[in-house]
Structure formats: C-alpha cells, structure tokens
Amino acid sequence: MKRIGLMQVICVSVFLMLVGCSSAEQEENTVAHAEGTGASTTVEKGAKNEDSKEQEKKILNIGVQYSPSSLDTHKGYSGWHTSTYGITETLFKVGDDFSLEPLLAESGSADGLVWTILLKDNVQFSNGDPLVADMVVRNIMRVAAENPRFAYLADFTYEVVDDKTFTIASEIPFPTMLNTLSSCEMGMLHLDKITDFDNGIIATGPFVVESFESQEKTTLLRNENYWDGDVVLHKAVFYRIPDPDTLLMAMQNGEIDCYNGVNAAAMEIFSADPAAYNLVTVPATRLQMYFLNQERLNDKVRAAINLTVNAEDIVSYLGGTVSATAGPFSASSAYGKVHKPSVDTEAAITLLEEDGYVRNSGGYFEKDGKVLEVNIAYYPGRSLDVLATIMQEQLKHIGIQSVLTSEEKPDSTYIATRDFDIALYSMNADLSGDPAYFITNTLKDGAYYDVAGFDNADCEALITKLTSEMDTAKRAELANQIIQITIDDNAFGYVAIFNKSTVLSSGVSGFAETSPFDFYGIDAKTDKE
C-alpha cells in the first residue's frame, strides 16, 4: 500500500475496525478514534453499554476520491458532492433511464415562453421550515450570481404566484428548463437560516451535516425531519481516499462499505468474490472521442481511419472501465440511438488506394512521394494516452504512419490552435438527461469545440430546431439525426463511454449504483444490513 495513501486513511482505519470485530470482541473492548493518530484504547465498562448501542445503529462508511473544500452547493462543483452526500435535493432529478423525474417539484410545464413550476405540498427543510416558491426563486437567483456556468439564469423573469407555484419566462424558447433545474448545483438551501454556507448548510435532503473537514471527511446524521419518509441509515461518513490502491485496501479490510470509480485491477478482485462484494457497472456519461481535422484530411482518409479504429480493442485493454459506443450518448438513452460502420480494415485500405495512395517499401501508404502521416494530439488523462497508443498501432496495421503529440492542457494547446490531424478528447457529454449540451458546444457552427472544420448545412438546420423544440421525444429524434450526420461525414470518432463502477459490501444497497450519473449517492432508502 502506498505510503501517502496509508497516512491519509490511518485515522479512518482505527475507528472503522469496529466493523470487522466479532461480537465477542465488541463485548470486551472497542476501538476509539484518536484524531491524528492510530492509537487504540480500551473502553471502560461504564461506557460499554453506550458503545454497544452505537454499534446497533446503521452507519455507512464511504470512500471517495474527491471531496469539496466547501459545502456551498451553489458555487463551483460543490453541488455534486452535497447531492452525493444526500444533503441537498433539486426540483427534478434524472432517472437511471435518463428521463426527468419530479423530486421537490410536483410538476413543470411550459406554455409558450413561460414555464410554470408547482412544488410538492409537504417539502420542508431539515429544521422543519417549509420550502416555498419565493425561497426557490431566491435560490435560483443565487446560483446565477455565484456560479458563472449558470449566469444565464439571471436573464429570465421570475414570478411567485403563491407559496407552491412560480413561473419562469424567457424571451426565446428554453426547452431544457427542467433539465437545468435538475442540475445538482440547483440544490435548495435555506437561505434565511444558514450562517456558514461553507461548513454548515441547511437543506431538504435525508441527511444533515454533523461535521465537515474540508477535502478530508464529512460526517452526516439522518434528517429526523425528512419530508419524504423515514431515513434508514442513522449515520454516514464520507472519507476522502484519493489513491485507488488505498481504496481497495480499505474495502478489503472492511474499513469502508462502498465506493465508486473502481479501477480495472480492483474489479478483478471484487468480481472474484461475489459473496463478499457486489460490483455494479453501468455506462455513464463521460465520453472518449477524437476530432478528425477536415481541413487536413480528405473524406476518404477520414473514412479509412474510422473503419480502422477498433473500440473493442480499447475496451479490452482498459479492463472494463469503458464501454464501446457508436455515438456520444449512452445507448440506453432515447437520444443515443445511432449506428456506425463496423471495423473493416480491408475496406479502409481500398479507400486509400482509390484516393491514389500506394504502399512504399516500408509498408506505409504514400502519394506523390509523400508518406501519409497523421499527427495524433492527446493529453494523458482519462486513459487517452492508452487510446493514442492503440490507435497508432491500428493505423500502422493498414499503412498509415502516425506521430503522437502529448499536451498537458489541450484547451490551451491543440484545441485552441487547431494544430492536429486527429485530436483526442474526453468530456462529459450528458450533464442532465438532454443532448443539447454536447451538440451545441461541439457541433454548432462557431461553438467552443467547433475546431475541426465540420460544416454541414443540414446539421446546422437541425441544431436550430433542437434549440427550440419543446417535445422530449422530438428532441431525441433530432439529436439522433444530428449525431448520425457527424458519423456519416466521418467528422468525429466516438470511441467509448466511461463506465461508472461501484462496489458495495454484501448487505449494502442504495448508493445510486445503477445511476449513470456521478452526482447521486446516498438517499433515504440506502441500507446496510
């Protein structure tokens, strides 16, 4: 076990050894947590009964690789953590099938340019105060003021109709309003009663903050005033353990009960012992892809490349941490129904020959005395270094020579300069159960990631329709048409979607293990038998 990882969890280990003690050992002694040390202490008999009662409570210990520096849900990406921790909730949430579901809201509907949101009757904060429409509107306005990614929310007009109803009006159609309200940064906070937004928020979720140690540990207690029924767990503790090897060790030792982000090596270990561990893997929302520069590569060369890159080889090498994909979205979503040609290296070679290329003595294609060489730009994160190396070998097999260019910061290098033939990239393609984010940021003319010369009038017209289409089914249909055009045009290569892999000890359930989204975690039904 790595030395640094050991020091990070040594405090965790001592306290959590209680989980692995036999009942006989618990009657004789317990291990007390000593802050900053690994010391064990024998508890006097006078405290034994109290500790035994504590052992009867359902306490879940969770390992996480990342933790926030602040609990202010509305700032930065802190909302991803407070949602995972079960502290905050949003008006709507995204289901396992990528569809929207009401949560704090009863319903949301649009009439032209005006959305009407109706809240559920019984929602209250953890201190017992009700959630009313005025508070919701003030939360939305605070998100707009505190989080640059949601600054556009200040452009809408809000009106409180009554305690349970409010409206949002826009100057142009905004079909993704409910998706925006499902973003975890939109968690509802009691703005009038919170005195320390960084360390002690008051929200509506099934858990409340007992203590918060910035970027280290968060201890939660059940919300005794939870509006949506009884909370099963008494307590939950999230420990930051950034090192994958240490996470594995902590899980094996019984020091934690679950975690997600399981790597390939740990998957093999957990899969080999199904009696002790439940390993759940689902395709998530982060995409591995590449751009094909149309200003440097003609149609036939791009087609040959796409017929050669074999996503299954990459999936196999990465050991189940990714799933091959035809498009940028999960095939489980309504807007992920696209197809791409199967790998066919013979067809790829034929295309190059039709384009006037011939093999040289070294086995590479050349034309007019110039070898067909492509520059593959990548950055090492998100396993893109592996993808680059495998692509290089696959292209070599059909006679395309390639050079690899590694950059630490793609957005300020090859994405900004467009100096590439093939550009590898990874991005979260689906943030809230709608295809618009990826499409408008990548495919729309003039978009931030419109860097490879893709220009298709039919695609642009469909994107324009998508920006105003209010019907969810029609939006999915439009998205599928748009993505299919990019595949047929060989503008991109959609390689794989990262899996969300969660391991749970036997008897643990309800850690959002079937959700493709990373920002859901414990809830009122999370259990530890």
TrEMBL record:
GO terms for biological process: peptide transport. Gene3D superfamilies: Dipeptide-binding Protein, Domain 3, Periplasmic binding protein-like II. Keywords: Signal. Transmembrane segments: none annotated. Residues 1-24 form the signal peptide. GO terms for molecular function: peptide transmembrane transporter activity. Residues 100-446 form the Solute-binding protein family domain. The keyword Signal applies. Residues 45-54 have a biased composition (Basic and acidic residues). GO terms for cellular component: ATP-binding cassette (ABC) transporter complex; periplasmic space. It comes from the Bacteria. It holds the Pfam family SBP_bac_5. This is ABC transporter substrate-binding protein. It comes from Vallitalea pronyensis.
